[in-house]
């Protein structure tokens, strides 16, 4: 099962690169956009949560403006401050938030979405 999940993640990454017309060597030079990430599982991480959340919720807002579905999936340990997200233009009533304890549970939720 782990190989299948890893394959899905790799496949999504390859699809994103193809849609963005990027090569692996040029990924760091490109911007992530909702159009480039559409239909892909995207994991954003960094040493500080605030900048990563800012980028992530800008993408969420872009997707919502295009009328496309988007969901937020995270661990039970991590969360965001809903008033800040709403101030950034995200429609919280249209954003399913799924918080699950284990990676396996989160991957299962992704498959079901």
Automatic annotation (TrEMBL):
InterPro entries: P-loop_NTPase. This is Uncharacterized protein. It comes from marine metagenome.
């Amino acid at each position: 099962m782990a190989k299948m999940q890893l394959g899905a993640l790799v496949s999504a990454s390859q699809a994103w690169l193809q849609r963005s017309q990027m090569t692996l060597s040029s990924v760091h030079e490109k911007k992530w956009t909702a159009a480039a990430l559409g239909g892909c599982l995207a994991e954003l991480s960094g040493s500080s949560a605030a900048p990563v959340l800012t980028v992530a919720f800008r993408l969420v807002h872009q997707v919502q403006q295009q009328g496309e579905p988007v969901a937020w999936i995270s661990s039970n340990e991590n969360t965001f401050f809903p008033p800040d997200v709403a101030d950034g233009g995200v429609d919280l009533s249209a954003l399913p938030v799924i918080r699950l304890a284990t990676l396996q549970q989160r991957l299962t939720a992704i498959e079901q979405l």
